[in-house]
Write a structure and sequence with these properties.
Helix content is 29%, strand content 24%. The strands form three sheets. Strands 1-2-3 form a three-stranded antiparallel beta sheet, with no helix packed on it. The protein is an alpha+beta fold. It is elongated and about 75 Å long. The chain has three domains: 44 residues; 88 residues, GMP Synthetase, Chain A, domain 3, CATH 3.30.300.20; 77 residues, 2-Layer Sandwich (Alpha-Beta Plaits). It is built from six helices and eight strands; from the N terminus they run βββαββααββααβα. Bound molecules: iron/sulfur cluster. The site of iron/sulfur cluster has 12 residues, from helix 4.
């Protein structure tokens, strides 16, 4: 399993209602809640971010297709909005996407581009099966190094450095399992597999040493 993003989206919040700092691959932006929900509206709210993702993906996908076809279509606008309703005790969410070609296009082009938009990657995600996995950590162990030995090596985990990307959990669940205590099970894989995974930790929170080295 390979994550879509090499660097996960990293969000933090303090006590200022409800300013969130969102770090992405190439910068930082602020997200917030509208005043009606107690925020200061200094940035997009979560629904807006979700709909922005679909609008962006639609526009980029259409532009790529139009370029490939060599069609002369310059500007395109997309509106996205959503509503939620209850059907047979189930909450359903309906997202509406309106595509507006800001110049005349043929019926064939419009039909084809509508089809292409419906298959943009974010559309597929939203219309496919989605599972949100949540892992919770406690950074109260700041400054600590926790050691997990097996017969060959000792894995060292620094909680304050761990950014909880979950990479280790996803790739080697037999060893790294945040639901278990201790969360690192050194019997869950071969020493070589553990070393390989430790070396992939993106933050350096995981390291290891060979037990014999420590004895020397
Ligand atoms: S130890 Fe490394 S790979 Fe595992 S969750 Fe923390 S930062 Fe991610």
């Amino acid at each position: 399993m390979i994550y879509k993003l090499k660097k996960p989206v990293h969000g933090t919040i303090g006590t200022i209602r409800y300013t969130c700092t969102i770090e992405w691959r190439n910068g930082v932006f602020i997200a917030d809640e509208p005043v009606s929900s107690g925020g200061a509206d200094t940035g997009p709210d979560p629904y807006t971010l979700l709909l922005s993702s679909l609008a962006t993906c639609t526009l980029v996908t259409l532009r790529m297709y139009i370029e490939r076809k060599g069609w002369d279509i310059s500007n395109i606008a997309v509106n996205t909005n959503m509503y939620q309703a209850k059907k047979d005790e189930t909450n359903i969410t309906v997202i509406d996407r309106d595509i507006n070609f800001l110049q005349p296009v043929t019926a064939e082009q419009r039909n084809r581009l509508t089809e292409i938009a419906q298959h943009c990657p974010i559309s597929k995600i939203l219309e496919g099966e989605i599972k949100v996995r949540t892992f919770a950590y406690d950074d109260s162990e700041t400054g600590k190094q926790i050691k997990y030995p097996n017969n060959d090596i000792t894995v060292v985990w620094k909680p304050e450095v761990c950014k909880h990307s979950g990479r280790c959990v996803t790739h080697l669940p037999g060893v790294f399992n945040t639901q278990a205590k201790p969360w690192i099970n050194m019997e869950g894989a071969s020493t070589e597999d553990i070393i390989t995974q430790v070396q992939k930790c993106p933050t350096g929170a995981l390291s290891y040493f060979r037990n014999e080295e420590k004895l020397q």
